[in-house]
Amino acid sequence: MTVFALRNIVNVETLQEIQDRFAEATGLAVVIADEQGIPVTVPSNFTNFCSYIRSSEEGLRRCMLSDERVGIMAAKRGKPAIHRCHSGLVDLAAPIILNDKYLGAVLCGQVLIEDQDKDRLEQIRRNTRNLLVDQELLHQYFGQIEFTGQKRVEAAAEMLYLVANYIVKMGATHLAREELDEKNQKLMEELQIRAQLEKTLQETQLRVLQSQINPHFLFNTLNTISRLAYLENAEQTQSVTYSLAKILRYSLRNIDQLVTLKEELEHVTNYLNIQQSRFRDRIQYEQTLELDVESVKIPILCIQPIIENAIVHGFEPQEGSVKLTLRAFTIGHKVVIEISDNGIGMSEENLVSIFSEKETRGGHTTGIGIKNVHKRIQHCFGPDYGITAINSEMGAGTTVQITIPL
């Protein structure tokens, strides 16, 4: 159920204008109060008598309590109520009810009734004698209070009811507009999500179209090139072609498939064989494995993207050689795969951006990306696994740790 208050559904300046116009038209004192009797607007046309009583702390408390009571009385009846306030003056209240919730009341009055209140001064003195105010001044202000007829009071009550209903309609319109705005906002968000999904689908369809060359044709072609290289004594060409064929065959396996660490590292070796032929002796690679870790399972294509990232972003931009070190060791019931390089390192900003929602890297990478590797490992093994540490220092290199279950 929606929780709302009077001042939140109708602009206070608008309420003030309505109240001022009503006071001008009737000559009566008017104020709009919330459900607790606390004024929402600045009182209009208040008598000096009531203003003076409200100037004392106890007098204000009694007035707000009186306003609260007559407002609730009107709300229970569902129509305007006429009563005597705590000091003895006649007040009117019309309830403001929206969606069966009492939000406040329009209150007016501060008058005395002709033929009823001629001798009320003594009673009013008794009602107000313990207030910390000047009783003589209060008596003087009492003499300024207007006497009016019963019919005028009843007519004012009917008019007050119309005003309260008008405020209710404004509140209902405001709520309807808010609800419409909220639905429009949700619709816009859904349209944006749909547009993004359509864009992603189109990009995926394009990539599928681009990759629709027959794999068997490609492998057969690579094997032919490899045999030709052998016949021509081009051993390095044969080796690179053979490695490329293995990489392509491995990459076409199901991305959700689990492979052994040994298989994944063979794929890394084939990838580095091609890169070493490109950079010759500028790439050094060392690999150290503890016993029994080769058989652990890992999602396919989780290590090679890290190696590629080290070469592309840590080595290609600079001259000189790169040293890559891979260690796999156990800690308790976990296997940690640590990949280190001596490349250019990463700034703090780049480290933070790696796992951000917005992709910041592209071009040379495999398209799988570090973030994707992390998510796929967590999807397979849970939140305690994945890329659990990335340490980098500008000019000194980067170390990435992957953790998987033993």
UniProtKB/TrEMBL annotation:
InterPro entries: Bact_2-comp_sensor_kinase, HATPase_C_sf, HATPase_dom, His_kinase_dom, PocR_dom, Sig_transdc_His_kin-like_C, Sig_transdc_His_kin_internal. Its EC number is 2.7.13.3. It catalyses: ATP + protein L-histidine = ADP + protein N-phospho-L-histidine. Keywords: ATP-binding, Coiled coil, Kinase, Nucleotide-binding, Transferase, Two-component regulatory system. GO terms for cellular component: membrane. The keyword rRNA processing does not apply. It holds the Pfam family HATPase_c. Signal peptide: none annotated. It comes from the Bacteria. GO terms for molecular function: ATP binding; phosphorelay sensor kinase activity. It comes from Effusibacillus dendaii. Residues 177-207 form a coiled coil. Residues 303-406 form the Histidine kinase domain. The keyword Transferase applies. This is histidine kinase.
